[in-house]
Every structure is written in C-alpha cells, then in structure tokens.
C-alpha cells in the first residue's frame, strides 16, 4: 500500500547520513544545522552501535548527554530572552542604592511618576561608565529553585542526575555582592 504524495513527505525520515573521511567537516556541518534548526546537538560515535556485545547502557548515556545539551540550550535562550529586562532591573537596583527613593510619612518609598533629575543624571553617568570606580553593597535574596522528579523503581540514579541538572549551582539563600 502506497501513501499519497501529499503525506509521503510527512512520513519520510528527516535524518541526514554523512559519510566521508576524517577531518572533512561532517561534524561541523551537523553542528551548524542543529543550531539553525534550534535543536540540541551531541556527537555519538557509530562504533558504539557496531561493536559485538553492544549493551543498552550506552543509550542511557546518549540520552543523558542529549538531555544535558537540551537543558543548556533552553537556559541560554531564557537568559538571552530576559537579558534586557534584567539589565534594566539591575540598573534600577544600583540607582536605588546610590539615590534612595523619597519616603512618605510612614517610611515607605513613594512611587514617583517621573524620575528625579538627580536620578537621571546618575543613570547617564552609570551608562557612560563614569561610576565604574565606585563600590556599593547590595543584598541578593536567591529564591530556592528545584524540580521534584518521581522515579519508577530501578531508575533512582537517573532521577538524581536529572534533579542535579535542573538545580542552579553555587547560590546561597542570601549573599552580599560588592561591585
């Protein structure tokens, strides 16, 4: 039974098999295609699949590597997506330390519609790098970040590896940054 011509392109494998001697650029072409397709990339040697006595544990490591690459790629995309807003917020935090907002009668910071002239002046100096030699201290509160993963029996090791992959390394609850 043959498929209609319209459906045939949906079913046909979308893989690329590149054959050639070492050093001609097969891996680099594949890496660039993956980047263009916005897909994670890992390199797997074909000898793992052609050896006698091939064991499924190799597949676990391949899946783990691919998952690591995908998570790293998503993190980089999220960082790039939020970079502009994060820079704006960081600039506001620095300006709050340099020029604290005006307080109302109850000691709370007032919401101003227009930034003060002094704040605008300091913002300009900050952007031009004129304040780079100044040191300020800012308290950072890190929100606890974690992912809880339930594992089927016998898969506890892979679950702990996935959990450690999703955790943010090297952050304490509150830390002081001086810059």
Automatic annotation (TrEMBL):
Domain ATPase AAA-type core span(s) in chain numbering: 16-69
Keyword Ubl conjugation: no
Location of region: Disordered: 158-179
Alphabetized Pfam families for the sequence: AAA
A GO CC term assigned to this protein in UniProt: HslUV protease complex
Keywords attached to this entry: Stress response
GO biological process, one term: proteolysis involved in protein catabolic process
Presence of the UniProt keyword Transmembrane helix in the record: no
Domain of life: Bacteria
GO molecular function annotations of the record: ATP binding; ATP hydrolysis activity
Annotated Basic and acidic residues bias: 170-179
Protein's UniProt name: Heat shock protein
Source species: Salmonella enterica I
Lineage per the UniProt record: Bacteria, Pseudomonadati, Pseudomonadota, Gammaproteobacteria, Enterobacterales
């Amino acid at each position: 039974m043959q498929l209609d011509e319209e459906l045939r392109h949906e079913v046909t494998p979308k893989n690329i098999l590149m054959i050639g001697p070492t050093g001609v650029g097969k891996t680099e072409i594949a890496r660039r295609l993956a980047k263009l397709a916005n897909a994670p990339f890992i390199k797997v040697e074909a000898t793992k699949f052609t050896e006698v006595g091939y064991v499924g544990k190799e597949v676990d490591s391949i899946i783990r590597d691919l998952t690591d690459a995908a998570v790293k790629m998503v993190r980089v995309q999220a960082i790039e997506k939020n970079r502009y807003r994060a820079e704006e917020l960081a600039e506001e935090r620095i300006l709050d330390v340099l020029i604290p907002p005006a307080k109302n009668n109850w000691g709370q910071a007032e919401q101003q519609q227009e930034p003060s002239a002094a704040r605008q002046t300091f913002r300009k100096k900050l952007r031009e790098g004129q304040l780079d030699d100044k040191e300020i201290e800012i308290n950072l509160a890190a929100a606890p970040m974690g992912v809880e993963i339930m594992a089927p029996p016998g898969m506890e090791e892979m679950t702990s590896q996935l959990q450690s992959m999703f955790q943010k390394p090297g952050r304490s609850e509150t830390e002081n940054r001086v810059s």
